[in-house]
Amino acid sequence: MALRVEVVTPEKRIFSGEASMVRARTLEGELGILPGHISLLGVLVDGEVVVKETNGQSTTFQIHGGFLSVNKDRVSILGEASD
Predict the structure, then answer these.
(1) Average per-residue pLDDT in the chain?
(2) In angstroms, rounded to a whole number, what is the distance separating the alpha carbons of residues 29 and 31?
(3) What letter would DSSP give residue 41?
Protein backbone atom coordinates (compact mmCIF):
# COMPACT_ATOMS: atom_id res chain seq x y z
CA MET A 1 0.00 0.00 0.00
CA ALA A 2 1.38 3.42 -0.93
CA LEU A 3 0.47 7.09 -0.78
CA ARG A 4 -0.16 9.02 -3.99
CA VAL A 5 1.63 12.36 -3.44
CA GLU A 6 1.58 15.65 -5.34
CA VAL A 7 3.54 18.75 -4.39
CA VAL A 8 2.36 21.81 -6.31
CA THR A 9 3.42 25.46 -6.35
CA PRO A 10 1.50 28.27 -8.04
CA GLU A 11 3.92 27.95 -10.98
CA LYS A 12 4.09 24.16 -11.51
CA ARG A 13 3.87 20.63 -10.12
CA ILE A 14 7.26 19.84 -8.56
CA PHE A 15 6.57 16.25 -7.48
CA SER A 16 4.08 13.56 -8.40
CA GLY A 17 4.52 9.95 -7.41
CA GLU A 18 4.09 7.18 -4.87
CA ALA A 19 5.51 7.34 -1.38
CA SER A 20 5.63 5.25 1.76
CA MET A 21 5.64 8.32 4.04
CA VAL A 22 5.33 12.11 4.01
CA ARG A 23 6.59 14.37 6.79
CA ALA A 24 5.50 18.01 7.04
CA ARG A 25 5.14 20.75 9.66
CA THR A 26 1.75 22.41 10.20
CA LEU A 27 0.48 25.03 12.63
CA GLU A 28 -0.47 22.14 14.95
CA GLY A 29 2.99 20.54 14.81
CA GLU A 30 4.95 18.04 12.75
CA LEU A 31 3.00 15.30 10.98
CA GLY A 32 4.11 11.91 9.73
CA ILE A 33 1.67 10.56 7.17
CA LEU A 34 1.58 6.84 6.35
CA PRO A 35 -0.81 4.84 4.18
CA GLY A 36 -4.20 4.54 5.87
CA HIS A 37 -3.91 7.96 7.58
CA ILE A 38 -7.18 9.66 8.47
CA SER A 39 -8.38 12.51 6.26
CA LEU A 40 -7.17 15.95 7.27
CA LEU A 41 -6.53 19.46 6.07
CA GLY A 42 -3.59 21.37 7.56
CA VAL A 43 -1.97 24.77 7.21
CA LEU A 44 1.75 24.43 6.50
CA VAL A 45 4.39 26.58 8.14
CA ASP A 46 7.79 27.38 6.65
CA GLY A 47 10.02 24.34 6.67
CA GLU A 48 10.85 21.03 5.08
CA VAL A 49 8.45 18.59 3.51
CA VAL A 50 10.04 15.17 3.16
CA VAL A 51 8.63 12.56 0.79
CA LYS A 52 9.99 9.05 1.27
CA GLU A 53 9.35 7.38 -2.06
CA THR A 54 8.45 3.70 -2.38
CA ASN A 55 11.92 3.02 -3.90
CA GLY A 56 13.53 4.17 -0.62
CA GLN A 57 14.74 7.53 -1.93
CA SER A 58 13.81 10.62 0.09
CA THR A 59 13.06 13.94 -1.58
CA THR A 60 13.05 17.14 0.49
CA PHE A 61 11.31 20.40 -0.43
CA GLN A 62 11.60 23.78 1.31
CA ILE A 63 8.02 25.00 1.56
CA HIS A 64 7.00 28.51 2.61
CA GLY A 65 3.42 28.30 3.82
CA GLY A 66 0.52 26.61 2.08
CA PHE A 67 -1.82 23.72 2.68
CA LEU A 68 -1.68 19.95 3.06
CA SER A 69 -4.62 17.66 2.34
CA VAL A 70 -4.87 13.93 3.06
CA ASN A 71 -7.78 11.89 1.72
CA LYS A 72 -7.89 8.16 0.93
CA ASP A 73 -4.12 7.67 0.63
CA ARG A 74 -3.76 10.81 -1.50
CA VAL A 75 -1.58 13.60 -0.17
CA SER A 76 -1.74 17.00 -1.85
CA ILE A 77 0.61 19.81 -0.86
CA LEU A 78 0.13 23.31 -2.21
CA GLY A 79 2.71 25.88 -1.21
CA GLU A 80 5.49 28.22 -2.20
CA ALA A 81 8.75 26.33 -2.70
CA SER A 82 12.29 27.65 -2.89
CA ASP A 83 14.70 26.39 -5.53
Answers:
(1) 95
(2) 6
(3) E
